[in-house]
Amino acid sequence: MSKNSSFKRNALSYAACLPWLLAAMAKIDISKVAEILKKNHLDPAMLRRVIEELNLAAQPDPGDEEKPPAVKKQHIFLVSDPDGKMPKSDLVGWVLQIPETESPATTQDRLLRGVYDYNMTKKGQLYPAKTIGEALENVPAKFFKEADLWVRTKTPVLVLRTNNTIPKE
Question: Which residue among 16, 47, 53, 157 is least packed, with the fewest CB closer than 10 Å?
């Protein structure tokens, strides 16, 4: 059995694997692949089918278009102040969550309970939380979760005022 007939016999299996091999390998010009196949005396019908399949495989998929990078977002706490009672200076705060059935008035108690529990641990005694800001940034979530409190922003966010009206153009 000659080397040429062995190649022709396996050419169909090679041709079926080429698109996947080329996708995994470095980019190579399809015309170079065609020249290599011609040098190995591949029959013209088989060569045409292989080149057509390679051209189809080389075209980019319409779903693989490059997406723009994700936009980085920040949290903003918007407060309605139609009577202008809030100070004009910038305020910062944190976004927290409690169970829907509970009163918002219990939020500070929940926060303090989580901080007290943390400060009683070995790590809490070494690095105690002394302010609300330190507590929200450094205390692990499990201490707040036990008190049914979830911290959504560990770093303070800007509080913006609004007069709650939409101006007429």
Answer: 16
